[in-house]
Amino acid sequence: MTTRPRLDSLIFEVTQRYNHACLHCYNVWQAEPSLLAARSPQGQLDTARTLAVLGMALDEIGCRHVTITGGEPLLRRDLSAILDFLRERNVRISLISNGRLLTDSTAASLIQRGVGAFELPLLSHEREIHDRLSASAGAWDAALSAMASIRKHHGRVVASFVATRLNIDHLYQAVRLAFAFGFGVQAFIFNRFNTGGRGRLHLRELLPSVEQVRTALAVAEAAPAGFCIPIACSIPIQPCLIDTRAYPHIGFGYCGIGTERAYYTLDPLGNLRPCNHSSTILGNLLESAFSDLVEGERLHCYAAALPASCTGCEQRLVCQGGCKAAAEACYGSADVTEPFLRAALAASNYAHPIRRGAAGLDACQSAPTATNGATESCNNPLTRC
After folding, report:
1. Does residue 196 lie in a domain region?
2. Is 303 part of any domain?
3. What is the largest CA-CA distance in the chain?
4. 193 inside domain
């Protein structure tokens, strides 16, 4: 007898369309054109079928929180109908946006329609760096303006800082900006750059070192006391690289695949994926029950995959080697070492407790296979709106 799955949260990618071209973007639709046809079907369902699929998923899993994302979700014309549908079901709603289209009136309307939390990027205290990473002039000003509008209408803002080589030294000033200048930020996400999508093309340029991340975590550890903003890391940081116990005021999460904390992701065509970093399609909810897809062999095999460099490590079942989706996006398999750990293993000043000698980053230039896996950490302030 099939057990009914229970989930804390569901991610719904309402559109594949974008109005920015962020260098660090992990979205599966931002991969090289040669990979898109095999791995990421294009298009979206009409409003009626979208609501039907969403309703079937919510009925089966009993989920009371949905994160709306994309693409840029505000580019979807029937977004208001989707939000009204969720609100009528008493589902808590979070929305991830780059802020470009979040005008004052739009913010007011979204909050009225039930959006309880907004995740917006804050990549630097410097306009030039934020806009460079966003590959869009005016992105920094738009994000700050959106935060101000949300605050004006009593909404909740979660700022997201993606730590790359270009901006990781700006973390303190970014947190200070979020707090000191009154943009109403109530939580802060610190994510190390996680490779996938367009980010594959910028791996060497953007991937921070272990030492850079360790230094940034020390800054983040002091921030809650100095600015009264809780900080969480939503991308896994391997405990064999950095002892996260040294940062008790930061929330750390690891892959929740196969548990109630998993971030299963529904795309605009009704396809279900293990998480929003993964291109693996478990199946389509128009054709199969949610429970059949999350208990299938494909997901089970992926969840069991571990890189050889982690064999025998006592932490392997906790961190699972980091992000399997990043490993698969770059190297074609979920059971190989992902880029952040691979770079550390290749560094002359680091010795993995189990195994050294992993390949360098050059292999990321090879095309991954069409079958991919997933990961997502589960410490997300958006689920606590």
Report:
1. yes
2. no
3. 57
4. yes
Q: The domain spanning residue 144 has which CATH number?
A: 3.20.20.70
User: At which residue do the structure tokens 């309307």 appear?
Assistant: 109
Q: How confident is the model at residue 374 (pLDDT cuts 50, 70, 90)?
A: very low
Q: What is the pLDDT of residues 292-306, one digit of tens each?
A: 999 888 888 888 888
CA angle 236, 312, 376 (to 5 degrees): 20
Residue with tokens 């990549």: 123
pTM: 0.89
Q: Going by C-beta distance under 8 Å and a sequence separation of 6 or more, which residues neighbour residue 329? A: 26, 31, 195, 196, 197, 200, 277, 279, 368, 372
Is the C-alpha dihedral spanning 110, 232, 317, 361 positive or negative? positive
How many domains in the chain?
Answer: 1
How far apart, in whole angstroms, are the C-alpha atoms of residue 262 and residue 280? 15
Does 167 map to a domain? yes
Residue 240 structural domain: 10-262+377-384
Is 186 in contact with 175 (CB distance < 8 Å)? no
Q: How many Å apart are CA 278 and CA 274, to the nearest integer?
A: 6
Pairing relation of β-strands 283-284 and 271-273?
Answer: antiparallel
Mean pLDDT value across the chain: 86
Query: How many other C-beta atoms can be found within 10 angstroms of the C-beta atom of residue 75?
Result: 17
In this structure, which amino acid lies at residue 285? L
